[in-house]
Amino acid sequence: MMTKWMAKGYLWLLLALLYSPILIIMIFSFTEAKVLGNWTGFSTKLYSSLFTGGVQRSLVSALWNTFAIAMIAATVSTLLGSIAAIGIFNLRSRTRQVMNFANAIPMMNADIITGVSLFLLFVSFGVSQGFTTVVLAHITFCTPYVVLSVMPRLKKMNQNVYETALDLGATPFQALRKVILPEIRPGMISGFILAFTLSIDDFAVTIFTIGNEGLETLSTFIYADARKGGLTPELRPLSTIIFVTVLVLLIVINKRAEKSKS
Amino acid sequence: MQKSDCIIGVEHVSKFFGDKAVLNDVNLSVRKGEFVTILGPSGCGKTTLLRLIAGFQTASEGVITIAGKEITQTPPHKRPVNTVFQKYALFPHLNVFNNIAFGLKLKKLPAAVIEKKVKQALKMVGMTDYEYRDVDSLSGGQQQRVAIARAIVNEPEVLLLDEPLAALDLKMRKDMQMELKEMHKSLGITFIYVTHDQEEALTLSDTIVVMSEGKIQQIGTPIDIYNEPINSFVADFIGESNILNGLMIKDKLVSFAGHEFECVDEGFGQQVPVDVVLRPEDIYIFEPSEAAMLTGTVTSSIFKGVHYEMMVQTPEGYEFMVQDYHCFDAGQEVGLLVKPFDIHVMKKERICNTFEGKMVDATHVEFLGCTFECREVPGIEPETPVQVEVDFARVILEDNEEDGRLTGEVKFILYKGNHYHLTVFTDWDEDIFVDTNDVWDDGDRVGITIAPENIRIVQSTKKEGSGK
Question: Residue B167 sits in which domain range?
Answer without folding.
Answer: 3-232
